[in-house]
Amino acid sequence: MIRILIAEDQAMLRGALAALLGMESDIEVLGAAPDGETAWRDLQRLRPDVLVTDIEMPGLTGLELAQRIQRHELPVKVVIVTTFARGGYLRRALDAGVSGYLLKDAPAEQLADALRQVHRGGRAIDPQLALEAWGEADPLSDRERKVLRLAGEGMGAQEIAAQLNLSHGTVRNYLSEAIGKLGVGNRIEAYRLAREKGWL
């Protein structure tokens, strides 16, 4: 049996994924978490073989979850199922040790086959995205990415500093670096461009 945990913040989709995958004779759905932090706790408690996760989730994104799994060397394979058809996301996912990356509009049987492939030690990557991913490299550091994401969500430098335990000046430096690297005029343009490229 392939023991899986699902992490997806949209309740209807979470339920649909669990129901669809639960119908497969060789797949057992151990649980379905509504956010990244819950998924992280469930991972340690349930010890699944494969985590099926979205990228954008409250608190801890699917990519941050994959990075944490990699850092703690948990024996869990990660398959991302997302609407984000951007090469930048795939590159970051592969850097975080993700074994599968599929789009939500792919047929359901493709997901089950991908899980089997990943469980056997293979990779399951959307082929069109794989080509795109080797285009432009992501110029942002992890810190620049975090700061820029919060700025794009409407936080001021002082709030970002408090949330990330940084000084106000350090936050301004990270934003300035990100703006410079992306060759744009301000933090909003930087956020927009980085989102478009899949770097956030």
Automatic annotation (TrEMBL):
PROSITE patterns: HTH_LUXR_2 (PS50043), RESPONSE_REGULATORY (PS50110)
GO molecular function (one): DNA binding
Keyword match Aminoacyl-tRNA synthetase: no
Biological-process GO terms, alphabetical: phosphorelay signal transduction system; regulation of DNA-templated transcription
Pfam family, one: GerE
Family annotation (SMART domains): HTH_LUXR, REC
Keywords from the named record: DNA-binding, Phosphoprotein
4-aspartylphosphate modifications at: D54
InterPro entries: CheY-like_superfamily, Sig_transdc_resp-reg_C-effctor, Sig_transdc_resp-reg_receiver, Tscrpt_reg_LuxR_C, WalR-like
HTH luxR-type domain: residues covered: 133-198
Coiled coil: none
Domain of life of the organism encoding this protein: Bacteria
Domain Response regulatory stretches: 3-119
Protein name: Response regulator transcription factor
Lineage: Bacteria, Pseudomonadati, Pseudomonadota, Gammaproteobacteria, Lysobacterales
